Amino acid sequence: MPIRPLALLPALALMLAGPLQAAPDPTDWNAVLDEARGQTVYWYAWAGEERTNDYIQWTADRVAEDFDIELVHVKLSDTAEAVSRVLAEKQAGNDDRGNVDMIWINGENFATMKANDLLFGPWSEQLPHYPLTDPENTPAVRYDWTIPVDGLESPWSSSQVVFYYDTALVDAHPRSMTELLDWAHDNPGEFTYARVPNFLGNAFITQALLELAEESEILYANMQEADFDEITAPLWAFLDELHPLLWRGGRAFPANSSELRRLMGDSEISLALSFSTTEASGAIANLELPDSVRSYVHDHGMIGNMSFMAIPYNAQHKAGAMVVANFLLSPEAQAHKQDPRVWGSNTVLSVETLDEADRARFDGIDLGIATLSPDELGEVLGQPHPTWVDALAEAWQARYVGR
Amino acid sequence: MLRLAPWLIISLLVGPILAGLAMAVLPAFGYLPALGGEAASLAPWQALFAQPGLARSVAISFASGLVTTAISLAVVLLFLAGASGSRLDRWIRRMISPLLSIPHAAAAFGLAFLIAPSGLLARLVSPELTGWERPPDALVVNDPWGLALMAGLIIKEIPFLLLMSLAALHQLDAERRVAMARSLGYRPAIAWLKVVVPSLYPLIRLPVFAVIAYASSVVDVAMILGPTLPPTLAVSILTWFNDPDLSRRFMASAGALLQFGVTAAALASWWGLECLVRRLGRGWVTGGQRRRGERVLRLAGKALILLAAGTALVGIAGLALNSLAGFWRFPDALPQAFTWQHWQRALPSLGGPVTATLMIATVSTLLALGLSLAALENEQRSGRHPAQGRLTSALTLLYLPLIVPQIAFLFGLVVVMEALGTRPTTWLVIFGHLLFVLPYVFLSLSEAYRRFDPRWTRVALTLGATPNGAFWRVRLPMLLAPLLTAMAVGLAVSIGQYLPTLLLGAGRVTTVTTEAVALAAGGNRRLIGVWALVQASLPLVGFLIAVGLPRLLWSNRRGMRGTP
């Protein structure tokens, strides 16, 4: 590379400025694009699904082509590993050359990082593609589990809990938690959920509480210790009765959604749940589930949420991370992601408000035989406040672990 | 220069472990400034002891350390006593390397698929013999008593203890002892147990301790086969370290120290058991009984090892079948269709991790080999011979990385490395692997090195060779076979490392093992089959080279081929 003395000046200025290197300003998008060119972005993302990994690889190829960014997927088995890493760096005083450039995150991990000042921003609302999510009319983009996003993370995927069952083994599926209990009485050992505090396990008990609690409004605010016992009493009565009727009599639970899916594939159970509306269709295509599996939702509505991209406060390649996050929000990337043959993860864009060409990208997608249409998915219930979910998970463990 | 080698080894091994442990102690007592922990307190311990099911977690970890070791050791000793010289003996000896090269996680997955109610065994006999159209609702894998966990550990620890015993047996001249006892009328297996075991055990004592420590603190096998409500202590600690609620880091550090204590307690109990067995066994050894139990012992020795080796191999075969399986409904004995789809999907992403794995394994093994050779050559030239098996010798420090639970010091080590400003790079991962590769390489090499007939060197020196010349041109070529075996062991150890790779590489360095465990979180048995086979085949290549190369190079010198 020929050395051009003038080009070195900004770099020199930065060196003189020392560790307080100026963070990229997302309002000046061209400057961000310039700075991002040639950067290597380390994206810390959960890697338990091959289809997710393949999609991330596709993204890496695309951003290399369009923006000259090398995107490296750092594969995690638990998102909190990335949070740990940033924390260890802060502990060691590494405030400006962190290893983690971008994290796939939501809920409790976001709440933790936000509360501990581990995030960079605000930046996400200035991304060129952000308005496509129609933020004014989509609260899910602005609140992550009721915690204000405040521009600290950029939306990526939306998901909703669905149940799925094997029509070859089950005649009529339940339509509510109360019916599920009756069904379990008639079919003991045929259902189970993921072990709390796995996110799917938490989602199941939260969903049960939303359906069973007298009043669910209170669950969307910071939890007050005094309310906990009264509000959650119907949940524990329900679970105490349900557990002996579960797979293995509730003495063991699968670790996560994929293990739950494997139990369905081995026909150990005939009813399960997932945080992805296309899970069943994808698994049928992947030869993991029989093609007699179908999805359904409860009449009450089902919990849904969004997952996001966040940039740690000490990330070394913030500009590159912003460019990648913006690409992930593009109609091209979002439509590719929604295709069940690719991944089948729902878009966060407001498809109706897109221009015609972009809308066509979504209209052409075949959602698969076991996927419910947007109308059939019914009402989406918001995630309760993280303090409630934490307290529920802890109470669950105190009650059912080590018995 | 050579004189520095032992000190270099000791500081390389001891320094990082002590530093890592220290960084676990501070947060355990409330000191972690980045999270606002500025003053010493006992709160982390109170939180730890308030955890539901903690007593049970501790009990399972403790028990699995002792039970796994006792059964593995018993099977190995019975086999050696009852089967030496038979065809089974030769077959098992040939199988040691392949069995050792199966990664723990892969063996655990294989076992889980074999014994689960919807697993391979149930599928083979259903519905014809059992009448099961659906899998029975029986808690076999993940049972609350940890039996499946112990079984999974036993099938992996048997080959390790067997390898260590075979190496030690060379020193004992077991055949002559047995021949002597037989001339006094003792039946072969009884004779072996009475005259060989009492001298053999002290030589394999440290490997036995390493097995106890490993079995009481293992993470990956316990996640796959162990109990879940609650899991073992080591698994719980990992979840606390990974909890989104950062204040749990304090409690996790206290847990790491508790794990250290549990492992130490298991070792102490074993030491107590040793005393008990020594006292009770003395009467049996000197009692003069010559034949009672001979047939049972022989039969047990053969049957148990066959069961263990067979389980491991069938388990792997089950995984191989899965990697080619289309949809496979219970109770079909075979998948409805076979497909290359899973391999085709995985192949494009295999290249990078395989290269990284081989690079890290090769460099760390070569470093370990160089250090071990330097230390051993120094020992020879200075004429000192360390006492083996005795706990007080400096050699014991070599076992430190194998006896201190990984989970107790690795998290602390990451903080230390961060504080030193070291960037997580491939080099840091190599350094982390060296902690575990070095002891194994040293241990598998030292035996052959010390047994090397000193007269060869003396002849070379009298013919005018310098000490260095004698080392390079006489000793090394003659030790080619054990050198290659030590390298193969080193490669296998490095390839299997999960926590050190993940933590020191900041997740940026991906090896076959980190990929496999990350995918295991996804639970897709077909993909796990693909990755587990790749993971198992890499070390196997090393062992094949170790056996094949000397035969090729020394095809005209039978004594140099190093066949055991």
Question: Strand-and-helix sequence of chain A, N→C?
Answer: HHEHEHEHHEEEEHHHHEHEEHHHEH
The description of the largest β-sheet of chain B is:
none
Instruction: Work out the helicity level of chain B.
Output: over 70%
Oligomer: heterodimer
User: For the residues shown, what is the average pLDDT of chain B?
Assistant: 86
CATH topology heading of the largest domain in chain A? D-Maltodextrin-Binding Protein, domain 2
CATH C-level class of the largest domain in chain B is: Mainly Alpha
**So what's the overall shape of chain B?**
globular
| First-residue to last-residue Cα separation of chain A | 67 Å
Coarse shape of chain A = globular
Structural class of chain B: mainly alpha
Distance between the termini of chain B: 34 Å
CATH class of the largest domain in chain A: Alpha Beta
Question: What's the helical proportion of residues of chain A?
Answer: 40-55%
Query: Pairing-aware structural class of the strands and helices of chain A?
Result: alpha/beta
Q: C-alpha Rg of chain B, in Å?
A: 25 Å
Keywords:
heterodimer, A: 403 residues, alpha/beta, D-Maltodextrin-Binding Protein, domain 2, 2 domains, six-stranded mixed sheet, 15 helices, 11 strands, disordered N terminus, B: 564 residues, mainly alpha, MetI-like fold, 24 helices
Q: What would you say about this model in short?
A:
The complex is a heterodimer of chains A (403) and B (564). Chain A contains 15 helices and eleven strands.
General description of the model:
The complex is a heterodimer of chains A (about 400) and B (about 575). Chain A has about 400 residues and is an alpha/beta fold. Chain A folds into 2 domains: about 20-160 and about 305-365, Periplasmic binding protein-like II (D-Maltodextrin-Binding Protein, domain 2), CATH 3.40.190.10; about 160-305 and about 380-400, D-Maltodextrin-Binding Protein, domain 2 (3-Layer(aba) Sandwich), CATH 3.40.190.10. In chain A, about 40% of the residues lie in helices and about 15% in strands. Chain A is built from 15 helices and 11 strands. In chain A, the strands form 3 sheets. In chain A, strands 1, 2, 3, 6, 10 and 11 form a 6-stranded mixed beta sheet that branches. Chain A has a 3-stranded antiparallel beta sheet with strand order 8-7-9, covered by helices on one side. Mean pLDDT of chain B is about 85; it is low at about 385-390. By secondary structure, chain B is mainly α. The longest helix of chain B has about 40 residues, at about 340-380. Chain B folds into 2 domains: about 45-340, MetI-like fold; about 350-405 and about 420-564, MetI-like fold (Orthogonal Bundle). Chain B has helices at about 5-30, 45-50, 55-85, 85-100, 105-115, 120-125, 145-170, 175-185, 190-195, 195-215, 220-225, 235-240, 250-285, 295-325, 340-380, 400-405, 405-420, 425-450, 455-460, 465-480, 480-495, 500-505, 510-520, 525-555. Chains A and B meet through helix 3, strand 2, helix 4, helix 5 and helix 10 of A and helix 3, helix 15, helix 17, helix 23 and helix 24 of B.
